[in-house]
Each structure stands twice: as C-alpha cells, then as structure tokens.
Amino acid sequence: MLGAVAVLPMLPKLVGTAVAQAQIAPLASWNDGPAKRAILDFVRMTTDLASPSFVPSAERIATFDQDGTLWVEHPMYAQVIYCLDRVPAVVKAKPELAKVPAFETVLSGNREAIANLPPDDLEEILVATLTGMSVDDFEAEAEKWLETAKDPRWKRPYTDLTYLPMQEVLQYLRANGYKTYIVTGGGQDFVRVYADRTYGIPPEQVVGTAAGTKYGYDNAGKPFLTKEPKLLLNDNNAGKPEGIHLMTGRRPYIAFGNSTGDRQMLEYTKAGDGTRMSLLVLHDDAQREYAYGPAQGLPDTKVGAFPQTLYDQAKTQGWTVISMKNDWNRIFAF
Amino acid sequence: MLGAVAVLPMLPKLVGTAVAQAQIAPLASWNDGPAKRAILDFVRMTTDLASPSFVPSAERIATFDQDGTLWVEHPMYAQVIYCLDRVPAVVKAKPELAKVPAFETVLSGNREAIANLPPDDLEEILVATLTGMSVDDFEAEAEKWLETAKDPRWKRPYTDLTYLPMQEVLQYLRANGYKTYIVTGGGQDFVRVYADRTYGIPPEQVVGTAAGTKYGYDNAGKPFLTKEPKLLLNDNNAGKPEGIHLMTGRRPYIAFGNSTGDRQMLEYTKAGDGTRMSLLVLHDDAQREYAYGPAQGLPDTKVGAFPQTLYDQAKTQGWTVISMKNDWNRIFAF
Fold first, then answer.
1. pTM
2. Does the pLDDT at position B80 exceed 70?
C-alpha cells in the first residue's frame, strides 16, 4: 500500500486511488474472504485458455445493478431526488400543476409526506420531470443537477458515493476482457449521463428503464428526439433479463445485484451453461453505510427490498453473498 | 495488388481477401471517385488529433442499414424467405393453421401469390414463424437455415451475398476506431445470428426490429426467454434514430442506407454537430446486381423503396450517393 501511495503523484490522468490500487493488487479494498476468492477464481477459470470453463473474450459479459450495488441507494434513489428537485421548474413552466396533489406535496417541502408519496403520485412526478423534453435538453439538465446536488449524509456529489470495492471489480473484470454493463431499474438516459465518467461504462453499455422517444424536427428543420411518456422497458425483475437480451443478445457470465429487482437477472445468469457467477450485496454495515434487509431482520423497505426469501435463494442456488461489513475493508474512495 | 496476393498464403486466420486488401490499401474495391474520396476524407478529418473535426474514439459510432446496404435484398428479404421456409414446420406443429389463408397461400407453392401476399397476411406469417419459441431455439433454427438455404440467382448462402466494398468500409472504419452497428428494419435477433461471423459485428451492436421477450422457467426450473408476439421496436423510418438512441444513447457520426426506411437515420446523423456523413447506396447495376429506384425511373418497389424524393434530399442535404455501377469495381468477394 505504501508503494501505491508513493507512485500516485507520478501517474498521469489518475481517476482516484482505485485505479492505482487495481494495478498493484486486484480487489485491494476486499478482505481476503470467500467473496473475494470466489471472484478471483471465477475470473481465472473463465479467462485461462487451458481451463475447461474458458469463455472467449467476445462473450465475457458482466452486468451490474446500480442503486445499492454500485452506489448508495438509501434513504432515497438519487434519481428520485433529481425528479423532486426538478418539480419547481416544471411547475413554473406549467402553473396548473401547482394544484395537483402530487406536486402540491412536493412543493410543500414536508419531508415525511414526500418520502411517503403514494406510488401513483410519485409516478406522476417522474413522468413530468423525465419526459416531454428533447434528449439533449434532458441530458443538460441532469448534468447540471449532478454538478451541484449533494447527498445529505456525506455532503458529497452523488457520483462520489460509489463503492470502491465495486469500482475495483469493474476494473478487474475489464482488465480481464469482460465488457461491463449497468442493468438498472433506474432511468437508462439518466444513468448514461454519468456512467462513463463515474464507472468507465459508456452509454451503450447502460441498460435501464426506458421511455420511448419520438423523432421530430425543430423550427429550423433540424431533427431531434423527444422523450415520450411511454414506457418501453421496465428494467426491474423479469425486465432485467429481458432488457439484457434486447440490448446485448447474450446471457451474462457474471452478475451483481442487491435486491428483489435483481432476482431474475441473478437466476438467469447463474443458470447459463458453463461457469457463471451471481453475487448479492448485503447491506449490513450501519456504521459505514446502511443496514437493511435480512441483515437487520428488517421488513421490506421501499428502497432496496431484500426479503429473507432472496437470501435463501442465494444459498440454494449458489450465489455469492457479499457482506459489506465483512468483505470490504473500505467502502468509499474518499 | 500482386504483393497482396503473394502475401495471402502466409496470413493466418484470413477471412477472405477483403481483410488482406484492407491492410494493403483501404477500400480497394472502390473506384477512385467522389464517394471513395469522401469516405477517406471523413475518416481523416474525424480521427486526426490536429483536425478541428476530431472525434474522440469513444464517440465514433457508425451505423449501417443491412438489406440493400450491406447485402443483396432483391427480389425478397432473406429473412422473409426464412419465414416462408419455416411455414411447413409451423403448420405441422399447429395443423389448424393449414386452413388460414396466409398459410394456405404459402403451402400452395404458388410463387406469384406468395410474392404478392397482402401485408397483413405476411405479418401473420412473420409472427407465427418468429415468435412463440425460446430465444435459444430460435437461434438454433435460424442457424440451421442459414447453413443450407441458397439464393436462387447466385446459388450461394445468403451470407455470401454481402457487398465487398461495404465489408471494406466496415473494416476501414473499425481500424480507425469506429464502432460499427447494424441498424436494420429486419429482426434484431435474426440478424444477430450471423452478424458477427458475416460482418464482424457482435450481437450487442445489432439494432433491429424487436419483439419483446418474456421471462419464464422450464420444467426443471431453469429460466429462459420466450419471443413474444409483441412489437417493442419497429426499426424503420423514425424508428431507426429512436432505436439508435435506445441502444446506444449516441448520435452516429456516419450512417449508410439505401431506401426510404433509412431516411430519418441519414437525416439525424447528418444533422449532428461537427463533421458527419450520410451515404446512400444506389442500386444501378442491373448486370452485376440489380437496378431499382430512381436509377431506372422505376416506381417504388416493395423491397428497397427509393423514390426520387429521397435522391433529391440526398443532394439538398449533402449526403453522398454511392453508385454501385460507377463506384464499385467489385460487388462480391466470390
């Protein structure tokens, strides 16, 4: 570790310490336990030409859920906060919305009421703030928000709240010929705005919940796409393997998730021929991050639902459970 | 050229002469005319770091229509022939279909009646032959067909009927950091079966008309996806830029098409910031391939409709028209 730190100032274009560490020893933020060993074994078995489980590099697909798997999802998904933050601007443009209950609640600033918005009301907010504008305008708005918005607990931009051990896994898999994809229940276009600079994952490798777009022309006759309030892909639950097929035509060899929304992706991955691996991140570190799901015997939470049945399925089907508390010696790069 | 031929036997894993030619002189099957020069200029301008039009490699996206742009589409799309060929097996599995007019026509073997199937009847055939089976079974069926089916004019597998000059463009763009995509009105899953070995384009870089899939379990509890008779993306006309956005989140820098179904993709590409290029293949070589569209003053054909308005738009908006007759010194590798 001292060696890595000493070398740091000499590395050009260094993106955080994660890169340097990955170059020295893979998965440095992982404790030497069963999860780390299983990942190293999997990569060795699927990339060693002499191994019976060898996978040609073109077929090496790795998929990662985002919220709760690559970055913090509690107490509220970053994208939902984005949508809530956009409400004043949307109401300003359409004043009649101020009288609609969902918008009234958000404008009231009542945190508890906002946190408990009924699903239909929340959907109304999401549709109003995520559709109806051009693809380029949406990207510019999201970009602006990401530059200034901060998580209330760590007082840092949301894109800082990625898990260092998972960043190391992304880098390690890529260094071994794996193509890394995000497969998120969140908005495909939203995640694409920051996925490249945050995870090194380009927009074409982000699969997410997607609204349709509509082709049209501006006043000067220039073509552009408008985000439509029409759900094309609900990239949750069964929608994850369906979305992966739509976007890649392949079955992943390794997949990471952390909640019931990832269940089918993990099943589907693990059930493929040859050596496949599914991993489940368990949020059991209340001190350094959060503890929810079976770790605390908690009931299903709104965010990151992880019932006991999911844990049991992991054990039965041979998925690897990652304990944030025991498997990770660091959580964040900061 | 003598040099290239002499070197051939020494090159390992050589995929046709196209590769060797591309290594020696790019676009060797192109005559030295305006189309070839425009492509070479475009690549130089967008890849030279010193050029004001330089494009970072991650953003270098090239999109290609398939039927009529990368391979022969006349007199009937290969995929439609596949569907027609599948009819006996489908009727065998569901004998009640034998009485349905669309299937009756196909089973009759009456070539003229089959060629003139009403659109609704044809759609019935496509749905019955392309959906309702698992993704894996579909792939195996299509694979089997491709191995044996032959084009009636050239008596060769359909995958041999790709245009050598376009294969050279694919290779040349990739050698210059471009990611090449097929953007086809044809079935996404169908084209994925052969795109990699035929064009070097992996399944995740095929955007096409896509049916939804449905996640489920077989009797042994193993998860699999079934192709559903539910249209998710009609990748024609405005559906092309919409599909490109869905699958990549980017606007292409260069796009190739040959019919009205490509109009919006070509407009959209050309209208982007910086230096962009749109190209239109004109089928004007009745002897070596086919002549249709404005080249022959023909009315709109069922396959590869290319009205005069498309030609006019190419001229107005600065798209490059590729004359198969004048721009290509060879059409096929065989």
1. 0.92
2. yes
